[in-house]
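Action item from last week, closing it out:
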Amino acid sequence: MEAPERSSAQPTGQTVHWVIALLLTVIATCLVLRSDGGSGISEAHAQPARVGAAGIFAFTGQLGPRTYGLFMVDVDAGNVWCYEYSRERGKLQLVAARSFLHDRYLQEFNVDSPTPGEVAELVKRLRDRKATPDGKPGGNRNR
């Protein structure tokens, strides 16, 4: 009896793992080539001092019960984007992207309860209660 032939049109369950492994290998290679590599040979030109992260960072994660994604963050440009791996098509597809340059100026946006304002109020009440000797509001606060 001959084993049934596997159709080349159907991606295997291991494909997503190979794609992720390949991308992580590329990232690791870029990091090794970018760094000094521990050889002790310093560069001839001066390097400007950098504070914090810079460049493009990539990492993988699960988007849904059966879907995986590749997330990328460009710290210098202030962008984040995500590709979804589709087993059916055997391809990566861009599913989301946005700039986060101006997000730091937002105080409350697309947040569910408790909002940052509600949390601030809860913390204020808790601190006020702990500041009184009897734990009730309105007590002597000069301790």
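Closing note: Confidence is low (pLDDT under 50) at residues 38-44.
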